[in-house]
């Protein structure tokens, strides 16, 4: 082992530690690693930037645009609402949901599908008195199972495909992965509607659980009208002048003034006599208010969430996204109220409300926020990628901006045509997607601004940077060294042992450092292992491609798992309980199929 191998492996290990500890955004960590390799001369400038022009990475960008156009059509969510209907049994309804979800996810990015359907399913569950936790993890898992069926099913598939093309390999056809993944996906769906359904918890979502305990979280304070001897010192002052903005552990979310409700409350809002101030936060800190003259704590209050809003805004539940600009900043530092026209009532993480002053909470991916919004919230939130909004909008909400009927069907027919062209080898995936996006622009299915918003640039930066990191592993011989160690460890168990080691290692990386990064890091190891064993590299590459997407053990490794985390009221352990048997089914079935098709 020379110094270059030691250096590259050390930096890659440090990169993985930083990703696990969430030091900063994943794309910044991987890009920083790439920069180190560039500066130290491990990679030439040409090698470092090669990933930014990789066909697989660019195809992922096109996939984001196409998925956004289909989401805008509204056909998927309207179709699923009809499919669910009135349930004869919960398990039958679950099966009716999961089969088409897997089908859609085979040809579309599954993240917008899960974002779109999560509020619809929650509303349907509420109407039929069903716990959403029985449906939301299966929604995420079914979208993952569908995503591994085709080349365009997930960005991970396209990333590995792009790496193969870069190294002069043939790459995947549209249905190469289906030969292995179809049996695994079918068995996975059967598991989810039978054994998995019974294991799933009966949790309530954040809004429901908060509503039941709202008296524990909300304080009503009255600005006394008949203050003895003197005028009330708070009347006529702004919220900031009155010192009510930076209270320890308490957060002013609303002012009730006769028949008017003021929220979000601005620093410049003036206080009037008999105003009712609604605070949330750490109720144990109520003493700070009790000691202030002119304020009266209302006891026996019947405050509840549905009484907080007045029609101009509403209670909204959002999940902080992977690509949010708010990550690792406190709510106060983000100037949340001014930026989004919304006040934060509560923050949940790991299905537990964070008991702390709202403004001091540093946000992480997957945090679920309960907001009391003003009228401008949706417009402001829609211009960012900070949230997955999981509260369902009304059908006629102007920000839904759905396509008309003809354009909706045109977008679907164009997509189907693209799939046929790729299936018949008339066009490559990249060319077919490029043509589809151009048609969407020409016929105004989606605008350039909407396309820009749908592209997840942080994901593309992570992928492109990870390509460079993978090249460093190849170039220095580090990948060959790791492959040799894997083979040595698995040697007593034969070829099946090698397949198990590679698959498990990929799954572990996926759960810790995201699916795309896991696939790129495992790619050179898989290729070198195949070369050493004189096996068709396609066998090992299909194995790691499926393993990189088979993220069922935590909410962190895959975006769709994170989206349903808060809305389903899940605990981290719920993913392990339901996901471990599914992971074993996937592993065993995938290894058997790979062994049959390419090795024996």
Name of the CATH homologous superfamily of the domain at 208-307: Regulator of K+ conductance, C-terminal domain
- The CATH topology of the domain at 208-307 corresponds to Alpha-Beta Plaits
Give the structural class. alpha+beta
Percentage of residues in DSSP E strands: 5-15%
How would you describe this structure in keywords?
600 residues; alpha+beta; Alpha-Beta Plaits; five-stranded antiparallel β-sheet; 26 helices; 55% helix; globular; DASS-Related_Transporters; Di-and tricarboxylate transporter; transmembrane helix
What does this structure look like?
Among the domains are: 208-307, Alpha-Beta Plaits (2-Layer Sandwich), CATH 3.30.70.1450; 315-400, Regulator of K+ conductance, C-terminal domain (Alpha-Beta Plaits, 2-Layer Sandwich), CATH 3.30.70. The chain is α+β, with helices and mostly antiparallel strands and 600 residues long. The chain has helices at residues 3-20, 26-39, 45-49, 55-73, 75-84, 90-105, 110-127, 136-147, 155-166, 178-193, 195-199, 206-212, 214-217, 287-290, 336-340, 377-382, 405-423, 429-442, 448-454, 457-476, 478-490, 494-513, 515-533, 537-549, 559-565, 572-599, and strands at residues 218-223, 250-257, 260-262, 276-281, 295-297, 315-320, 342-349, 352-353, 368-373, 387-389. 49% of the residues are buried. It is found in: Membrane. It comes from Gracilibacillus ureilyticus. It holds the Pfam family CitMHS. Keywords: Membrane, Repeat, Transmembrane, Transmembrane helix, Transport.
